Amino acid sequence: MAAGLACYRNQQFFEAHEHWEGVWNRLQDPEKSFLQGLIQVTVAMHHDQHANRAGALSLLQRALLRFERCPASFGGIDLERLTADVRAWLAALEHAVGSLPSFPAIDLVEREHD
User: Where are the alpha helices (DSSP H) in 1-114?
Assistant: First the structure.
């Protein structure tokens, strides 16, 4: 997972997808569905890098449906922020805005210490 996150943050989206797909195959729901959403966001960013906005739009819509079934943080990820970023991307893509927002952030949440 960490290797995929490092690739994502370096905008190496295809490589991030490859790392996470190997993990995804071994999971059960709800983790499997959640990770599939992360993979869909990653592939959407890969599509955007290659001027395939329709592909990016479709994958972001599907990822959002998966994320909406999860709590605000899931699997150590700040899903509330990621979901907001995905929504901003969807709005920009749907309205054919020339300039897109920053890539959706996949941030870790800090654990609360007792």
Answer: 2-9, 13-24, 31-49, 53-67, 79-94
Residue in 98, 106, 2 with CA at minimum distance from that of residue 45: 106
In a domain, 34, yes or no: yes
Cis peptide upstream of residue 71 (ω within 30 degrees of 0) = no
pLDDT tens per residue across span 93-109: 888 767 788 899 999 88
Residue 108 in domain: no
29 has pLDDT over 60: yes
CA proximity to 20, closest of 106, 110, 109, 111:
106
Confidence of residue 114 (pLDDT cuts 50, 70, 90): very low
Strand partners, 108: 77
Full residue range of the structural domain in which residue 71 is found: 2-94
